[in-house]
């Protein structure tokens, strides 16, 4: 059965569907970056509100900025922007069709359709999921990087921007000129202080071409920090087959684990849906939640995926089945990461480590090791290196974290231990690969990448451990190195 509005009443028994009249929905949100995570997370929360008869004037209009987004646009428009969510618990599965998205804007050079839609007064939130590495951050200073070619283009051509941030600035310029007022800019990516990061990017870009507009945006718009969490694999043939087995012809289904969390700072300049009525948490302590999640879950993903890639282990669940990698995660998380984190009101740090260990081990979630290890040049500085710095400052052991960094250097050499090739898996792969090859004979060469490591090469407690582990990995193999770390 082709998934469309007209066929919702014919969905197989047991598949939940929208109870609201989608024809009556009115837009309130533009979301840039319609990947699987957004549709399984933010769109789901809004859908559940609509199931209760709430937030019917907050429907989502999807948007993209790159040519490859056109493929997703075509798939979703062909099925009236409906998505089948398939929840995969360890012992069972369930399915639900969500309908909170009602349109997907055309993707054009210069982003005119996106700019004009964001400039309309009914849009009160512009949200985005564009990956951690998409915010034009200088990895050394953590400040805005104005030297990127796309940023240079947008500052010189503010009416025909290439980036999502340039489009936001152009739309806010129109709103200011037309007396419409600001909207909330909402980041839903895995960045610590993600709202602050988004503010930095948008305001800094605006300042390059229009300082007065930059001041207006900084004063009038809000950029709430938030923490988002759910494991959502990419969609491939097996996920398409799961939808087919349900009796649904969905060209863009999404599988996800049986866990979601959304913690949000309540700072919305133009109103918001009551997401807390369906399980989201509004709090002034977003940083506490996100520190726990980013350091243990996102950092933990790197702890297991990088050695897993070198050892030719296909999925995260398979990594957790590997005795050495599972024990590596537990020891590093409990001894070297958790002691650096303050617990939040409803979760201890050790309890959170246990929760993440169970989530990573869910065999129904086919989350590939390669996907999780992608973009290490953003993820290691964001998820691992802060724990190394804090550990050194507080006198906590960093030997396991040094092993993880050595494993990353080994992975970036581009071959697995079985001799197979690791295809380029990072925007900076050429540089990483060259340094990794040099580091095989001179391990300290890897730490010379100060844009990632800063002065850590000058910290003997970390650097000496790194040299030891990378030398052992190349000399004796990944498993021997991990076993050595695990030996009391």
UniProtKB/TrEMBL annotation:
A GO molecular function held by the record: oxidoreductase activity, acting on the CH-OH group of donors, NAD or NADP as acceptor
Matching InterPro entries: 6-PGluconate_DH-like_C_sf (IPR008927), 6PGD_dom2 (IPR013328), Mannitol_DH (IPR000669), Mannitol_DH/Oxidoreductase (IPR050988), Mannitol_DH_C (IPR013118), Mannitol_DH_N (IPR013131), NAD(P)-bd_dom_sf (IPR036291)
Stretches assigned to the Mannitol dehydrogenase N-terminal domain: 28-276
Key words, A-Z: Oxidoreductase
The keyword Secreted is annotated on this UniProt entry: no
Keyword Oxidoreductase: yes
Mannitol dehydrogenase C-terminal domain mapped to chain residues: 285-472
Pfam family membership, one: Mannitol_dh_C
Superkingdom of the organism of origin: Bacteria
PANTHER family assigned: MANNITOL DEHYDROGENASE 2-RELATED, MANNITOL DEHYDROGENASE DSF1-RELATED
Name by which UniProt lists this protein: Mannitol dehydrogenase family protein
Phylogenetic lineage: Bacteria, Pseudomonadati, Pseudomonadota, Alphaproteobacteria, Rhodobacterales
């Amino acid at each position: 059965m082709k998934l469309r509005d007209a066929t919702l009443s014919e969905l197989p028994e047991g598949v939940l569907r929208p109870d609201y009249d989608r024809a009556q929905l009115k837009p309130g949100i533009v979301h840039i970056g319609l990947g699987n995570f957004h549709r399984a997370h933010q769109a789901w929360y809004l859908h559940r509100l609509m199931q209760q008869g709430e937030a019917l004037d907050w429907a989502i209009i999807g948007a993209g900025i790159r040519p490859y987004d056109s493929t997703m646009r075509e798939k979703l428009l062909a099925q009236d922007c409906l998505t089948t969510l398939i929840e995969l618990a360890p012992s069972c599965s369930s399915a639900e069709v969500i309908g909170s998205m009602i349109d997907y804007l055309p993707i054009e050079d210069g982003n005119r359709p996106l700019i004009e839609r964001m400039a309309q007064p009914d849009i009160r939130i512009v949200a985005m999921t564009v990956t951690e590495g998409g915010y034009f951050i200088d990895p050394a200073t953590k400040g805005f990087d104005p030297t990127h070619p796309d940023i240079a283009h947008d500052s010189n051509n503010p009416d025909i921007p290439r980036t999502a941030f340039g489009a936001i600035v152009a739309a806010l310029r129109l709103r200011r000129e037309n007396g419409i007022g600001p909207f909330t800019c909402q980041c839903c990516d895995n960045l610590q202080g993600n709202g602050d990061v988004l503010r930095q990017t948008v305001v800094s870009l605006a300042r390059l071409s229009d300082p007065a507009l930059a001041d207006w945006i900084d004063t009038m718009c809000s950029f709430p920090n938030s923490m988002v969490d759910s494991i959502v694999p990419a969609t491939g043939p097996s996920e398409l087959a799961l939808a087919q087995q349900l009796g649904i012809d969905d060209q863009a289904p999404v599988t996800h684990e049986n866990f979601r969390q959304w913690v949000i700072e309540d700072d919305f300049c133009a109103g918001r849906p009551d997401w807390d009525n369906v399980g989201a948490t509004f709090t002034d302590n977003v940083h506490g939640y996100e520190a726990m999640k980013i350091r243990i879950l996102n950092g933990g993903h790197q702890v297991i995926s990088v050695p897993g890639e070198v050892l030719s282990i296909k999925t995260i669940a398979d990594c957790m089945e590997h005795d050495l990698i599972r024990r590596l995660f537990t020891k590093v998380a409990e001894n070297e990461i958790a002691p650096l984190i303050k617990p939040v009101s409803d979760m201890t740090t050790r309890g959170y480590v246990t929760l993440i260990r169970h989530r990573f081990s869910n065999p129904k979630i086919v989350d590939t090791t390669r996907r999780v290890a992608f973009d290490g040049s953003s993820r290691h500085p964001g998820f691992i290196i802060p724990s190394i710095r804090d550990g050194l400052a507080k006198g906590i052991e960093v030997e396991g974290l040094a092993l993880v960094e050595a494993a990353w250097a080994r992975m970036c050499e581009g071959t697995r231990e079985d001799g197979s090739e690791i295809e380029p898996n990072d925007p900076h792969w050429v540089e990483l690969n060259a340094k990794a090859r040099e580091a095989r004979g001179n391990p300290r060469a890897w730490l010379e990448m100060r844009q990632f490591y800063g002065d850590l090469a000058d910290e003997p407690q970390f650097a000496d451990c790194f040299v030891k582990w990378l030398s052992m990995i190349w000399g004796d193999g990944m498993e021997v190195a991990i076993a050595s770390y695990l030996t009391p």
